Amino acid sequence: MGLEIYIGPVLALLGSNLCLLLLVLNACDWFGLVHADLSALERLAVNLDDFQLHFRTAAVATVLLALLLCTRTTSPSDQAIPKERRRRSAIALFATAATLAAPRLLRPLSHMHPVIRRSLVGSAALEEPRRVDVSRSEDDSTGPDVPTPVRQELVFEVNKMTCGGCGSHVRNLVEKALAAQQRDSPFTFDKVEVDWRAGVMSVHGTQLTDHLNKEDVMQILGEDGYPSRSFIQALTKLPIGFCGYLEFEFLNIR
């Protein structure tokens, strides 16, 4: 029936945390072709992380099965069938390999555009902060320690979001504004999360409290019909050796 030719790429998509699917949908959302709430799909991509080895193994096995089946000849009158099967199997093999390789190919480009970062939401953290070994002696001769970036989260209250499309639109507006600010400011941002039901938006990154212009972000949202205020200034995560993180919350009601 040739069903194994289609199963391979689907298993590869699941084995890559839906990377290519998220890339296409987020690109359509970014250019205004689709307005949909992709948060459920992104949560699914994160939850698939524990089953990556199973999906990848099944994808490779399925494509190999298709290649084996395409070499079988049933009768002299069916000579065209193996040729057609080989063509379809080659396409399936290429699609499976490209789908599995997509996260590794896109990860070095994640800093170039928010759409690429969104497509990697199910993969391992892109830029986890380096943890400092507190057991190192102070007179270590290897040179001074490089300052560890402090992870921060700016939280905004955003009003008048009535659906997932509104939340997606707000995220696009904010990420475009942050990308423009980044050209002249040293802060970094990893992702923007929007919960349209709770009316909350979070910006994750480093040096946000010192360099991100919150007033500019709130002005852009207000001009587009989404009045907002920053009700929690920052949730700061400081690495403490290999034990984890200390979290500090700074309130700034506006």
TrEMBL record:
Coiled coil residues, start to end: none
Domain of life, source organism: Eukaryota
UniProt keyword annotations, A-Z: Membrane, Transmembrane, Transmembrane helix
GO MF entries: metal ion binding
Signal sequence annotation: none
Record has Phosphoprotein as a keyword: no
InterPro entries attached to this UniProt entry: HMA_dom, HMA_dom_sf
TM region(s), chain numbering: 12-33, 53-70, 90-106
Protein's name according to its UniProt entry: Uncharacterized protein
